[in-house]
Amino acid sequence: DVSGKGASAALYMAELKGLMLSLSRIHTSPRALLIEANEIIANHLDSRSFITMTYAVIDRGAATLTCARAGHTPFMRIAAGDVRIVDVMAPDGMVLGLNLDRGERFERCLEELTLPIAGGDLFFFFTDGVSEAMDVDGACFGESRLSSFLETHADLTPEAIRDRLMSDVATFVQGQPQHDDITMVILKIDE
User: Fold this and answer.
1) Three-class SS state of 84
2) DSSP secondary structure of 100-145
3) Helix 6-23 to helix 30-41 angle, to the nearest 10 degrees?
4) Phi, psi values for residue 164, rounded to 5°
5) Distance CA 183, CA 112 (A)
6) 28: burial class by Cβ within 10 Å (0-12, 13-18, 19+)?
7) What is the gyration radius of the CA atoms in the chain, in angstroms?
8) Contact 174/120 with Cβ under 8 angstroms?
9) Based on CB atoms within 10 Å of each CB, which residue in 36, 92, 93, 163 is the most buried?
């Protein structure tokens, strides 16, 4: 998620996409990838801009998901089982591109997290446009409402989860204009 709106934000996102495609061929560690991405992107952003992101790698052989989070919204994990409970995952990390101290603080703060995965697990990655969607009174949809929604609907397909969540958000905002982009990645591990 790039700070700001308009052409400059779109250009930064395009630059980041190309950078991720290149760096993902070099690095297997999400932490190492984000450290190098920060070193590169910090020299190209204007002083008022920054980027938040989560980068995750799935190793099916080891049955793990390894990730690092650069100031982005937490992601949610719902483990397979009879009782579906959301774990909000928020490994430490600063936003990309601040160019503060040659990236030393960014590197020091960035935590890499490895989680076991199993068939039926659900991972929900999202931008703040989902949780910060506002109703007519200025109340946000919120992470607790989102967690409850995911606990209730975790057994559905990712497409059905997306469609129902977008419907619930639209009902919640009661026709208020969307003030931020809504982006989500819903990952369900195969049995």
Assistant:
1) coil
2) SSTTHHHHHH--EEEEE--TT-EEEEE-HHHHT-B-TTS-B--HHH
3) 140
4) -65, -40
5) 23
6) exposed
7) 17
8) no
9) 93
Read off the tokens for 15.
């630059």
| Residue 185 CB-density burial (10 A; 0-12 exposed, 13-18 middle, 19+ buried) | middle
pLDDT digits (tens, 9 = 90+) for 45-66: 777 788 889 999 999 999 999 9
pLDDT per residue as tens digits for the range 151-175? 999 999 999 999 999 999 999 999 8
- The residue whose two tokens read 């650069």 is 70
Task: State the pairing for strand pair 64-70/53-59.
Answer: antiparallel
Q: Record the pTM.
A: 0.91
∠ CA 77-80-82, nearest 5°, is 125
Q: Mapping DSSP to helix (H, G, I), strand (E, B) and coil, where does residue 190 land? A: coil
